[in-house]
């Protein structure tokens, strides 16, 4: 019998019978042993490891796996690509990589971290123990033990519990991936506790218009500060994913931690610092506070991506054959777009082109016309934030009238960062 398939009440552990001496726990990472098991008797029963009757074979980046009855989205593959590339960079720079996949589902992220990022150890956790056979089947493609060290372990605990146990047992991880439903804010503090200093925290939000809005606040409470390496938005959820690097100490510069206003009357957006909260106004209101002004915050108002980091990710994507070679893959286009968005001179906010077109009584310019217009203006060394929107619109509209209809369909909403 494989001891790793033993099932302990309240979780999965490496036990074969209740009579086993507690010293048998010592060879295993302490983080995998719930502290409650060390202080009270426990009952053990075995659960057979049979493949799911809902077998559904998928292939991603050449890796074949079974999704079983788990929740799985092919559209999320790009987010998994980005996570793997970040893990590869970390392993290259630090020489070691321990990953905690807090909500692993069928285990495809864990498998990719093991195979593609060459992770030294992966803890694959999912609260639903009915997924165990699927996860075990998928991870079994990688040897459990290499050179006497465990490569991966499967557990079935609530994400907050496994994160808290890791912190209490001082078992820290270099990358923690929390691919949750809704907001991941409820996992922030326990995740910070289980993460190694200068480690990576990969967060998800499917509930709201921003990802990890409380990350800076929660980090500050615990004596850390965070910096975004990249932020990714996908329409299919919608899903926001952001990769944060976590540092010890206070945020060195508070200029990117403030409030953002938006005027429903004119569409103007701008940032306000904490000491400007009582002085908010809009250019369209002659220094008065209009009823059309709404304020959100406190939020991160700085760059959403680290351009240097993204360029390194693109380099490794090319080495893996995921980009380059004249193919112009979707991943390559995305990384190049994120690099462009990392320009600190870009303003936050967005322009509703359909509304502007309606007020101007003209058709919306094509996406290509808008991008060409912005690029030409940037080439003239003019900062985008210094341009009057009317001038940008007129320039783009002029390009549209002279351009071919083959440029593409009209764009209704354009987001700037």
From TrEMBL:
One of its GO terms (biological process) is tRNA N2-guanine methylation. Belongs to the class I-like SAM-binding methyltransferase superfamily. Trm1 family. The keyword Methyltransferase applies. One of its GO terms (molecular function) is tRNA binding. This is tRNA methyltransferase, Trm1. InterPro entries: SAM-dependent_MTases_sf, Trm1. The lineage of its organism: Eukaryota, Viridiplantae, Streptophyta, Embryophyta, Tracheophyta. SUPFAM superfamilies: S-adenosyl-L-methionine-dependent methyltransferases.
């Amino acid at each position: 019998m494989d001891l790793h398939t033993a099932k302990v009440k309240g979780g999965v552990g490496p036990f074969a019978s209740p009579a086993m001496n507690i010293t048998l726990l010592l060879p295993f990472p302490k983080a995998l042993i719930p502290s409650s098991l060390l202080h009270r008797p426990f009952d053990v029963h075995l659960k057979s490891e049979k493949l799911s009757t809902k077998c559904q074979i998928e292939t991603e980046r050449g890796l074949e796996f079974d999704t079983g009855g788990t929740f799985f989205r092919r559209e999320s593959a790009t987010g998994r690509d980005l996570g793997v590339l970040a893990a590869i960079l970390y392993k290259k720079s630090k020489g070691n990589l321990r990953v905690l996949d807090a909500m692993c589902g069928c285990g495809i992220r864990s498998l990719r971290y093991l195979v593609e990022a060459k992770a030294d150890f992966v803890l694959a956790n999912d609260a639903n123990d009915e997924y165990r056979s699927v996860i075990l089947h998928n991870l079994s493609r990688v040897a459990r033990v290499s050179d006497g060290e465990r490569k991966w372990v499967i557990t079935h605990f609530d994400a907050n519990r496994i994160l808290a146990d890791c912190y209490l047992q001082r078992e820290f991880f270099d990358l923690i991936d929390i691919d949750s439903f809704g907001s991941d804010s409820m996992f922030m503090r326990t995740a910070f506790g289980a993460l190694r200093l200068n480690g990576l925290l990969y967060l998800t939000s499917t509930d709201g218009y921003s990802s990890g809005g409380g990350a800076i606040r929660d980090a500050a409470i615990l004596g850390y500060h965070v910096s975004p390496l990249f932020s990714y938005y996908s329409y299919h959820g919608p899903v926001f994913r952001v990769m944060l690097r976590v540092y010890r100490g206070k945020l060195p510069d508070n200029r990117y931690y403030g409030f953002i206003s938006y005027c429903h009357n004119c569409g103007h957006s701008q940032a306000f610092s904490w000491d400007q909260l009582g002085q908010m106004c809009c250019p369209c209101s002659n220094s008065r506070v209009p009823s059309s002004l709404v304020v959100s915050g406190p939020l991160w108002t700085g760059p959403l991506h680290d351009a240097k980091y993204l360029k390194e990710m693109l380099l490794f994507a090319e080495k893996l054959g995921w980009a380059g070679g004249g193919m112009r893959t979707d991943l390559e286009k995305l990384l190049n777009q994120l690099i462009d968005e990392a320009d600190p001179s870009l303003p936050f906010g967005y322009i509703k082109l359909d509304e502007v077109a309606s007020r101007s009584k003209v058709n919306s310019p094509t996406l290509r016309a808008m991008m060409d217009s912005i690029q030409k203006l940037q080439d003239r060394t003019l900062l985008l934030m210094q341009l009057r929107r009317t001038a940008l619109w007129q320039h783009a509209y002029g390009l549209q009238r002279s351009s071919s209809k083959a440029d593409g369909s009209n764009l209704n909403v354009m987001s700037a960062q």
